[in-house]
C-alpha cells in the first residue's frame, strides 16, 4: 500500500513538473518571438514602441481621433492641426466609409527604413482586422513608426494593397477568415 501511494505521488509530481515546464517554455518562446519580431528596433526602445502602438490601434478602433492625433508623426499630419484632423476623420468614417473600421492590428514583421535612435523609421506589417458591413475580415495591414522628439510617432494603421486593387488577405500565419461578428 505504501509503495502504491509513492508511485501515485511520483506520477502526480512528474505530471505537474511537465505542465510547469511547458508553461515556462511557452512563455519564454512568446517573449523570444516578440524580441525576434522587433529585432531591427534598438532593444531599449522596444517596450515603448509596443506600448504606444497599442494606444494608436485602440484610438483608431474607438475613433478617439483627438488622442490618436497626439501619436501621429509630423510626416503624417503634414501641418494639419488637431481640429482639422479630427474633423476630416469624423467625416471620413461617418460619411465616406461608415462601415469600414480597423478593430485590431497584430504585428508580424518589422522592416527598418532607417535605424536611427533619434530619427529612425520602421514599417510594421501585420494582420489588420477590419469590421466591414457586419463582417470581420483579416487583411494585410501596416503602420509606419517614426522616432521624433525622443519618442515614437506613427501613421494610422492602413491596409496594404496595390494601386486600384482590393485589400489583400493577411499573408502571415493567422488564417484569413471572413466571419460574422457576434
Q: How would you portray this structure in words?
A:
This protein has helices spanning 2-37, 46-61, 65-69, 74-77, 82-96, and strands at residues 100-114, 121-132, 135-148, 151-154, 158-159, 178-180. It is of the alpha+beta class and 182 residues long. It has 2 domains: 1-37; 40-180, Roll (Nuclear Transport Factor 2, Chain: A), CATH 3.10.450. Strands 1, 2, 3, 4, 5 and 6 form a 6-stranded antiparallel beta sheet that branches. A hairpin with a 2-residue loop joins strand 2 and strand 3 (135-148). The protein is globular and about 40 Å long. The N and C termini lie far apart (55 Å).
Task: Describe the SSE topology.
Layout: H1 2-37, H2 46-61, H3 65-69, H4 74-77, H5 82-96, E1 100-114, E2 121-132, E3 135-148, E4 151-154, E5 158-159, E6 178-180
Antiparallel strand pairs: 1-2, 2-3, 3-4, 3-5, 3-6
Q: Which features would summarize this protein structure in a list?
A:
182 residues, alpha+beta, 27% strand, globular
Approximate strand percentage: 25-35%
What is the rounded Rg? 22 Å
| Overall 3D shape | globular
Find the structural class using helix and strand composition: alpha+beta
Tell me the domain tally.
Answer: 2
Which regions contain 5 or more consecutive residues with pLDDT less than 50?
A: 1-32, 176-182
Largest sheet: 6 strands, antiparallel
Number of E-state strands: 6
CATH top level of the largest domain? Alpha Beta
Let me know the CATH homologous superfamily of the largest domain.
NTF2-like, domain 1
Short description:
With 182 residues, the protein is an alpha+beta fold.
Amino acid at each position: 500500500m505504501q509503495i502504491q501511494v509513492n508511485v501515485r505521488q511520483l506520477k502526480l509530481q512528474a505530471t505537474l513538473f511537465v505542465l510547469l515546464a511547458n508553461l515556462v517554455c511557452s512563455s519564454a518562446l512568446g517573449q523570444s518571438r516578440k524580441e525576434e519580431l522587433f529585432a531591427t528596433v534598438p532593444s531599449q526602445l522596444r517596450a515603448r514602441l509596443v506600448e504606444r502602438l497599442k494606444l494608436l490601434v485602440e484610438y483608431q478602433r474607438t475613433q478617439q481621433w483627438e488622442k490618436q492625433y497626439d501619436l501621429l508623426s509630423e510626416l503624417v499630419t503634414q501641418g494639419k492641426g488637431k481640429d482639422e484632423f479630427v474633423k476630416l476623420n469624423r467625416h471620413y468614417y461617418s460619411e465616406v466609409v461608415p462601415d469600414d473600421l480597423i478593430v485590431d492590428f497584430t504585428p508580424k514583421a518589422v522592416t527598418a527604413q532607417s535605424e536611427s535612435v533619434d530619427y529612425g523609421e520602421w514599417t510594421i506589417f501585420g494582420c489588420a482586422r477590419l469590421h466591414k458591413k457586419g463582417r470581420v475580415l483579416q487583411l494585410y495591414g501596416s503602420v509606419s513608426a517614426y522616432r521624433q522628439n525622443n519618442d515614437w510617432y506613427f501613421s494610422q494603421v492602413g491596409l496594404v494593397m496595390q494601386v486600384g486593387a482590393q485589400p489583400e488577405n493577411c499573408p502571415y500565419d493567422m488564417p484569413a477568415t471572413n466571419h460574422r461578428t457576434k
